[in-house]
Amino acid sequence: GAVVSQHPSWVICKSGTSVKIECRSLDFQATTMFWYRQFPKQSLMLMATSNEGSKATYEQGVEKDKFLINHASLTLSTLTVTSAHPEDSSFYICTAAGGQSNTEAFFGQGTRLTVV
Amino acid sequence: KQEVTQIPAALSVPEGENLVLNCSFTDSAIYNLQWFRQDPGKGLTSLLLIQSSQREQTSGRLNASLDKSSGRSTLYIAASQPGDSATYLCAVPGSGGYQKVTFGIGTKLQVIP
Questions:
Q1: Which residue on chain A is closest to B9 by alpha carbon?
Q2: Sign of the CA dihedral B112, A42, A90, B21?
């Protein structure tokens, strides 16, 4: 099946700094990517929908100025957590749509962010 | 709006037992359903993907079934091992195709040696 690579798999950063997470579709063009976040003891929740060449669509309650999403090419979407706070510590995962299947989502491995 | 529920939330079993994890979803117009495993502090590992046209999928000691009409899927783990201890997530893509995926909260499994 199609491969989605997410990098880094884990990162520790200091409060106030910014962290960039990359999501790449390795063998197909992903016109749409989705970013999710997992709060402790909760399910993964959709944060935003990233469309190549256009602005991301954010879910209600997600700060677009804090979670910057850029989908500059058909194979790369990035999520930047700006001015990170300890409460931003979470598990973030991307999924990508596209390729030969329009009924299957392909998942990155996820990124564990810890803000200290 | 799709809602995914997983029961039980947590499960503790002795090694060697066969066990069943349940996933239910409210919108039966799905294309597929996927089961994942998540180890503490780690990412997701895909276990099984069932297309809507399929009733079950098997991989080793794992068997997943899908009943679209009733909005249910089960993950059967045979002869459980301590290494199976993890959280198991059920994920359902949107009914419009590959759109937004709805995840269950997961079942946390502990297999006791």
A1: A41
A2: positive
Q: Which residues neighbour A40 within 8 Å (Cβ) at sequence distance 6 or greater?
A: none
- From first to last of its 116 residues, chain A has per-residue pLDDT tens of 678 999 999 999 999 999 999 999 998 888 889 999 998 778 889 999 988 888 899 999 999 999 999 988 889 999 999 999 999 999 999 998 766 655 677 888 899 999 99
| β-bridge mates for residue B49, sequence order | B34
Peptide bond into A8 cis (omega under 30): yes
User: Cβ separation of B31 and A104 shorter than 8 Å?
Assistant: yes
B100 shares contact with chain A (CB less than 8 Å): yes
User: How many distinct helices (H) and strands (E) make up chain A?
Assistant: 0, 11
